[in-house]
Amino acid sequence: MDKLWKELQRRHVVRVAGVYALLAWLLAQIADLVLNNFDAPSWVMQSFLFLLVARFPVAMIIGWAFELTPRGFRREKPASSDAQSNDTAPALSSTLLLYTAWFAATVSLAAILFLSARFVEQQRTASAEEVKPRIVVAVFENGTGDASLDSVGRLAANVISEGLQRTGIVEVVPPNTALHISRTIAGPGDPVARLAHETGATHAIAGTYYRSGDVIQFHAQIIDTSNDVKRRQHVALKPVEGPYDKPGEVIDALRQRVMGAIASIIDPRIEQPAELMGHMPSYAAYRAVIEGLEIFWRSDFAGSQRYFQRAIELDPDYHLPRILLIFSHLNIREWTESEVLVSELERRRDELSPYESYRLDQLIAAANGDLEAAYNAAHQASSISPEFGPVMDGAAYAIALNRPQEAIEAMQTIDTNRVLIGWTQYWELLTAARHMLGHHDEELNEALIARAQYPDSLGVIFIESRARAALGDTEGVQSLLDASINMGVQPGWTVGGLFRVTGEELIAHGKADAGRKTLAQAVTWYQTRPAGEKERLRFSLALTLLSAGRVDETIELLELLDHEDPNRFFVLGALGVAKALQGDRASAERISAQLEGTRVPYSFGGTSFWQAQIAAALGNKDQAMAFLQRAFSEGRSMGDWIHRDPVFRSMLDHPPFQALLQPIG
Q1: pLDDT tens track for 285-338
Q2: Looking at per-residue confidence, does 485 or 100 come out higher?
Q3: CB 471 within 8 A of CB 440
Q4: More exposed terminus of the chain, fewer Cβ within 10 Å: N or C?
Q5: Tens of pLDDT along 245-275?
Q6: What is the DSSP letter of 414?
Q7: Separation between Cα atoms, residue 425 and residue 325, nearest integer Å
Q8: How many Cβ atoms sit within 10 Å of the Cβ of residue 635?
Q9: What residues contact 197, with CB distance under 8 A and at least 6 apart?
Q10: Rg (alpha carbons) of the chain, rounded to whole number
């Protein structure tokens, strides 16, 4: 052992190891500092450290076998003590020189890797980024025949340019630059197109103004001059007119109109191309719509209404906010308000663009419970304008009609990074379609993406727990539920509701013990609510008790609710189901007959649905199927719920019901 150690020392292997370790540590510190400041990807530092470690044994081998001399590398040979003494200093300096060179090479290689990565990343980012629209406003042409009004055209161009610049959403060619270039360019063709080409503009604004008596009128158009024109090239704005002796007021109104049109054209949040609206909004009305949409997408439908109403007040001929206002009322079941707005739009149908007409047809069909017609209208609207709103609506109707694959294909065309701001319904619909098709691995992957974006959403927690239940991951389900226990009430969701539907999912996928435990937890959650909240959630508690098989408690609670208000058909229907499960056939059949004579506006097959449930609970499977089919024809939606419904569990061996569960498309 001593002999080996002496030989390692003689050949400078020990010194090489020490020098290598010292320089490696120093370079690692420097690399860490430099790469962090340059925001380098983590793999660059990892690669650098790997090279340092990988070269250590190579250095040791070279240190053992070779020596660097002024005459180059030579094989190491046993040396006399005198030779060893005389050569120690030069050998050490040569060794240091050798490994300094090695480290320089290592750093160079790491730098090359880093710079290459940065170059690739920058190229990828640059190619992915959209070019910011650049607008040039041409001097408006004087069509009055009065040369003294030439300055009005320049004033209009200046005012519009200034207004567009203030929006911050476009780059505007300075008016003086545009004026100078327009005076110097010459040649065949459209002078506005040449002006746009010379200034590098993607859009040009041009127009003419006329005088008729005491009125001055401006006609303007927006021209898409980009190389990749995806929409119509010319968008004509509604003429703006006003007193001849107050051109500034008219120009200000024109500026508002142009700003609103430009913003609508380039803003991805607007649910239709501006040229398909039939009317260009003022900029103030456009801003009100955008503010309302941002709230709408966070499921605050009531809060969004005042912004849509404000947009209508600012621009009464702007119909998009009316359509969105109707949707906001429908989403919180304000049927009367939506009906009034639909009737108003119906009276003004001749003012609507084809896109807006299809959206109106969709709303009318949905209000009538005609899901097929609503689906067709949404599909027509999205074929004209494949934007977020109509595509999502078409997907929702596709799921309601048991066409989950169509829904998936539609939703996959949506750029979620571009338009979705809190709209968890996208993920809820997408994963519901996956669940209906039995694609549970994909369902879970998409649920995890949604959870990363919305970790505190009960609806998103449910879609992950539903996927895990289908995959048999009971521990994962319980972990999700434990994390959500203190989240309280959210739009459309409560913790108790989350536990109830998750428990039903577990039972539906063969995890009965875990499902019953979860249902028991749901009951406990409802029963331990504060008094006021517990009062409001009594019907939800009754449904949970029914799912948990606690029929007597369910009947006691439902009879109390029915006594307080006998006009609630859903309370009566649930009571009929509970009576059937209790074995009280006569009471169940009496309630079903009572529901037969009850037709509630906007219930969308609600009474027929409860009759189907009562028949299923009584064991009348064919009658249950007849009622269920009628409920669907009246507007009841299909979806992922039906396979987990505890009352229809007895129908799973019935061939017509099995056929019903099979997706159509």
Answers
A1: 878 887 888 888 888 899 999 999 999 998 888 888 999 999 999 988 898 999
A2: 485
A3: yes
A4: N
A5: 888 888 888 888 888 777 777 766 665 555 4
A6: S
A7: 18
A8: 21
A9: 225
A10: 36
